[in-house]
Amino acid sequence: MKITKICCIGAGYVGGPTMAVIAQKCPQIQVTVVDLNEERIAAWNDENLDNIPIYEPGLDKIVGEARGRNLFFSTHVEKAIDEAQIIFISVNTPTKTYGKGKGMAADLKYIELCARQIAKIAKDNKIVVEKSTLPVRTAEAIKSILDNTGNGVQFQILSNPEFLAEGTAVQDLLNPDRILIGGDTTEDGQKAIQALVAVYANWVAADKILTTNLWSSELSKLTANAFLAQRISSINAMSELCEKTGADVNEVAKAIGMDSRIGSKFLKASVGFGGSCFQKDILNLVYIAKSYGLSEVADYWEQVIIMNDHQKRRFSNTIVQTLYNTVSDKKICFLGWAFKKDTNDTRESAAIYVADDLINENAKIAVYDPKVSRKKILADLDYLETRTAEKNANSILSFEDPYETCEGAHAIAVLTEWDEFVQYDWQRIYDSMQKPAFVFDGRNILNGSALKEIGFVYQGIGS
Ligand code: NAD
Ligand code: UDX
């Protein structure tokens, strides 16, 4: 089948960048990204490319090139479904906040809504692609909805999980380590797989496009995220031991990372991992294992989350203890709020939980993040429902300028590894702070010895 029209349901962190790159690389294919969120679609269509809703280095340029040519953002979901030969489902799959599996299982209500809408609209055969991260065997449920329309339309379901990381989304999409496509082992299933392979083959080498059965593909995504997060919790566990023994976690990470069997990536000790994926996907994995009665498997992976929660709490405890066991009415400056650098995404950011702990101790938190607004910071804290919105608003001080943010502070905590933090005039910052001036570097990005020379009391993670 020659593909000329693609539609993607969900214009979020995955749908937006992924479809922009497909459109850029496949000018012969019309790509329409649809969403129910009118504000988000309006932002994607904003003439000023600085206003597109997702900040990713290089994304504005790609959207600028393809938008209006063969890339369209729209709220007309039904029309886009009707016209497309391939429909990607890239909607959110958050952790359930109600009912059975609350706090663990993935909430599939948005996925099911998409499947029902496709079933209602489609008049000719379609390939439906799971782009969202889903529990293994979700394709079965989607298929059951699509196969019961009674209108004779044939659907093929593929699983094509996305491995991009935020902050490097464009690079990851342009040069993926691999593209994974899972589908039915039937002849029609294989044809559908080949149709999607042909789309990616416009820019991805054939040996990087891996095809599998549906269940392997669905489960590989959860497995990849679990393994990645597990490395961070492993090194963070070691960071605590380093602090007790005089070892330095950066040196330990370097030493073990040079073993080619271990590898050097994803061994950076930190205040704890954040982001919308790791915690949600591991909780989902734990839930799935439990639902099959595999309690040892479930307990094994749950430990990754337990360690991460411990690491975040340990960081806030260290701040309180070091500041003479009280932070009440003290100004603590947060450099960074996003869950990692080069993104405006704050979902599950460690900063939220550390701030929550410190506000419980009556601290005043002054936040500076180059890409995150005060509105977003307050929304993140209000979402936890720990206290009233008014109390949160009174506890968070926001500044446009990092030097002003640090002025008069008792301590600085680095929560995000933005490059610009390293370049600051740290002498100027020191001069404007309360003494002793403390720095808690939750990302190990600052030059600790240079800071100590200025006069700071510097504490990194794991040394
Ligand atoms: P997101 O919340 O940024 O975007 C999802 C979008 O889907 C929202 O704009 C929402 O309005 C829209 N939507 C929901 N239901 C809809 C419906 N019925 N019709 C039309 N639009 C609808 O989420 P995201 O970060 O892009 O993640 C999407 C999926 O991709 C999740 O399953 C996630 O686990 C997975 N994923 C995310 C990342 C990442 O880095 N964020 C990476 C890989 C995979
Ligand atoms: C992750 C996966 O990397 C990606 O493949 C998947 O598609 C989505 O989930 P993302 O969450 O966007 O991507 O960013 P990632 O770079 O994985 O970082 C996640 C968190 O771990 C961040 O808070 C980051 O700061 C932290 N991290 C990462 C560490 O603390 N140490 C590390 O060594 C690496």
TrEMBL record:
The active site is at C277. Gene3D superfamilies: Cytochrome c1, transmembrane anchor, C-terminal, NAD(P)-binding Rossmann-like Domain. The keyword NAD applies. NAD(+) binds at residues 10-15, 35, 40, 91-95, 132-133, 166, 277-280, 347. Its EC number is 1.1.1.22. GO terms for biological process: glycosaminoglycan biosynthetic process; UDP-glucuronate biosynthetic process. Pathway: Nucleotide-sugar biosynthesis; UDP-alpha-D-glucuronate biosynthesis; UDP-alpha-D-glucuronate from UDP-alpha-D-glucose: step 1/1. It holds the Pfam family UDPG_MGDP_dh. Substrate binds at residues 162-166, 221-225, 261, 268-274, 339-340, 443. It is an enzyme of class 1 (oxidoreductase). It comes from the Bacteria. It catalyses: UDP-alpha-D-glucose + 2 NAD(+) + H2O = UDP-alpha-D-glucuronate + 2 NADH + 3 H(+). InterPro entries: 6-PGluconate_DH-like_C_sf, NAD(P)-bd_dom_sf, UDP-Glc/GDP-Man, UDP-Glc/GDP-Man_DH_C, UDP-Glc/GDP-Man_DH_C_sf, UDP-Glc/GDP-Man_DH_dimer, UDP-Glc/GDP-Man_DH_N, UDPglc_DH_euk. The keyword Oxidoreductase applies. Residues 333-448 form the UDP-glucose/GDP-mannose dehydrogenase C-terminal domain. GO terms for molecular function: NAD binding; UDP-glucose 6-dehydrogenase activity. Keywords: NAD, Oxidoreductase. Catalyzes the conversion of UDP-glucose into UDP-glucuronate, one of the precursors of teichuronic acid. Belongs to the UDP-glucose/GDP-mannose dehydrogenase family. This is UDP-glucose 6-dehydrogenase. It comes from Flavobacterium frigoris.
